[in-house]
Amino acid sequence: MGQEQDGYCVIVVGAGPAGMAVANQFSKNGHRVILINRDCKVGGLAEYGIFPSKHRLRTGLQKTYREILARPNVSYFGNVSVGRDKDLTVEELRAVGADALVFATGAQGTKTIGVEGDEAIGVFHAKDVVYHYNQLPGFSERVFDVGQRVAVIGIGDVMIDIAHWLIRSKKVREVIAVVRRGPAERKYNPKETHAVCSNIDKEALAKEFGRIRERLEAVGQNPEQIHADMLAEFKKCDPAESGTLMRFRFLSSPKRVLADANRRVRALEVEHTRLELKGDDTAARSTGTFEEIPCDSVVFAVGDRVDDTLGLPYKNGMFITNPTSSGREPDDAWFQVYDESTGQPLDGVFVAGWARKASEGLVGIAKRDGEWCSEVVQRYLAGKATRTRPRLEEVYQELKTLIDSRQPDAVTKDDLALLAEVEREQAAKAGLEEFKYPTNHDMLAAIRKRRMLVSGAECATA
Ligand SMILES: Cc1cc2nc3c(=O)[nH]c(=O)nc-3n(C[C@H](O)[C@H](O)[C@H](O)COP(=O)(O)OP(=O)(O)OC[C@H]3O[C@@H](n4cnc5c(N)ncnc54)[C@H](O)[C@@H]3O)c2cc1C
Questions:
Q1: Global pTM value
Q2: Computed over its alpha carbons, how large is the radius of gyration of the chain?
Q3: Is 67 in contact with 420 (CB distance < 8 Å)?
Q4: Contact, 91 vs 311, CB < 8 A?
Q5: Lining residues, ligand 1, CB within 6 Å
Q6: Strand 174-178 vs strand 245-249: parallel, antiparallel, or unpaired?
C-alpha cells in the first residue's frame, strides 16, 4: 500500500454513474477511494432506473463498475445511508478527516408542481414507479394500483418509460400524456418511443393537432409539419402486446386532482394554455378555460429534486454551490458546496451528477460530471499540498469503526461479488436474463448463506 500512503483519500457518497466516475478517476491515479452507498448494490439509477429491458446497457455498466470496485485502493460500504437521522451524518463524515468528500447522491427528492389534491389515492411520482419496476428494495413490494386510465404528466424520456411499463406490464386501457406546452416542445428522445409507438392512437393524435392548431399557428409553428415529424419518429415500433391506447393532451396545465368519496382519483382538471414566444423558446400561459380529464390515477413525471434531509446546504430543490465563478470550464465553483451563512465554500466538500443538477441528462452526462468533479477536487488538493496529511489507513479504520457501530449489515465489495454470483445462478435456474432479490433482507440472507458456503469450502480444503 506504499502508493496509497502517498496518495489522497477521497470519500464518495453515492455509487451511481457520477460517484463511480469519481471513484474511477481517483483510484486510477493511485489514490484511496471509500464509497458509501444507500443501496446494497452499486449503479444508482443505472441499476434501478434504466428500463429493465435495456440489458446491454445495464450489463455493460455493471461490468465497468465491477472492475472499478475490484481495485485494491477502492473500499465499499453499501446499505449505509448518510443524512439527518440516517446511519451517518455529513458532520461525522467530515470529522473522519479524508482529504475530500464528494456527494454523488443523485436527486432523491420528489419534485411537485403544486397541484391541489395531489395527496389523493392513485397519485404517484415517476421515480417511485421506476424504482418499483426495477425492484429497488423499499419500492419493489409497494403496490401501485393504477387502474385502467392513467394520466402521466410530462413529455420527457421518463414519461415514455412509465408509458412503456403501463402498456407492456400493466396493460392498462389508456395512457394519456398531459403536457403544458405543445408537441414542438416534446423532450423525449425519439429512439426511446419504439416500445410505445405501436400503441399510440394515431387517429386521436390527428384530432389533437386539430384541437390545438390555432394556438400553434399563433406563435408561428406549423402544425402539419410538427405532426408529420412526430409520426416519422414512430419507426421500428415493437409489436403491440396489449390493446392499450396511448394519447397526448397538449397545451394543458394540470390544476387539480379530483377525487371520489373514497379519496381515490377520478379525474385530472387541466387548464388550457396558449404559447408565448420567449426568446428562442416558448412559455405556456393560462387561458382561463378548464377541462376535466377522467382517469383512475395520475403519475407525475416532471423531474426530481435533491434530498433536503441529507444535511448539505439546500435551496429551491438543489444543494447550494459556490455562486462565484472561477472562470474555468468546467468551473470549479459548480462543484463546491457553499455555506451562505459564512459566504464560503464548505472546505473539501463537493457535489457531482444529479446531486449537482437534478434530472440532468443520461448516464454519459452524469459520468462526465463525475470526471469534471474529479478534476476540480484534484485542483483543490494540489492547492492544499502543504497541510498535514491524514494517514490513509487511519481514516479508513475510523470510518469502518463508525459504520460498524451504526450499520452492522453494511455490504462490502466482496459481499457484492458473492451476491452477483448467486443472482446469476438464480437467473440461469429460472431461465431469466436477470434475477434480482427484491428486498435488502433477501440480499443480505443470500450473501450470508454464500459466505458460509465459501468459508465451509475453504475450511474443508485447509
Ligand atoms: C426513469 C429513468 C430512466 C433512465 N433511463 C436512462 C437510459 O435508458 N439511459 C441512460 O443513459 N440514462 C438513463 N437515465 C438517466 C441516468 O440514470 C442518470 O443520468 C444517472 O443515473 C444519474 O447518476 P447519478 O450518479 O448522479 O445519480 P444516481 O444514479 O441516482 O445515483 C445516486 C446514488 O446515490 C446513492 N444515495 C442516494 N442517497 C444517498 C444517501 N443519503 N446516502 C448514501 N447514498 C445515497 C444511491 O443509492 C445511488 O446509488 C434514466 C433516468 C431515469 C430517472
A1: 0.94
A2: 24
A3: no
A4: yes
A5: 13-19, 36-39, 44-46, 49-51, 54, 81-83, 104-106, 108, 130, 158, 161, 310, 353-355, 361-363, 365-366
A6: parallel
Is the pLDDT confidence value at 86 over 90?
A: yes
C-alpha cell, 380:
483543490
Estimate the crossing angle of helix 363-382 against helix 17-28, to 10 degrees: 40
Q: Give pLDDT tens digits for 11-39.
A: 999 999 999 999 999 999 999 999 999 99
CA distance 389 to 106: 30
Ligand 1 centroid–CA 347 distance in Å is 26
SS (H, E, C) 200-227: ECHHHHHHHHHHHHHHHHCCCCCHHHHH
Q: Which residues contact 448 (CB under 8 A, 6 or more apart)?
A: none
* Residues 345/322, Cβ–Cβ less than 8 Å: yes
CA proximity to 365, closest of 17, 6, 8: 17
Q: Whose CA is nearest to atom 6 of ligand 1?
A: 50
- The HSE-up count of residue 178 (CA atoms within 13 Å, CB side) is 30
The overall average pLDDT reported for the chain is 95
- Grid cell in block for residue 354: 444529479
Instruction: Dump pLDDT digits (tens) for 410-441.
Output: 999 999 999 999 999 999 999 999 999 999 99
- The x, y and z cell numbers of residue 268, run together, are 385530472
DSSP per-residue codes, 432-462: -S----SSHHHHHHHHHHHHHHHHHHHHHH-
C-alpha–C-alpha distance, residues 252 and 285, integer Å = 10
pLDDT tens for 277-334 read: 999 899 999 999 999 999 999 999 999 999 999 999 999 999 999 999 877 788 999 9
Q: 334-352: per-residue pLDDT in tens?
A: 999 999 999 999 999 999 9
Q: CB-based contacts of 54: which residues, under 8 Å, 6+ apart?
A: none
Task: Please give the Cα distance from 9 to 284 (Å, whole number).
Answer: 49
Distance 84 CA to ligand 1 centre (A): 21
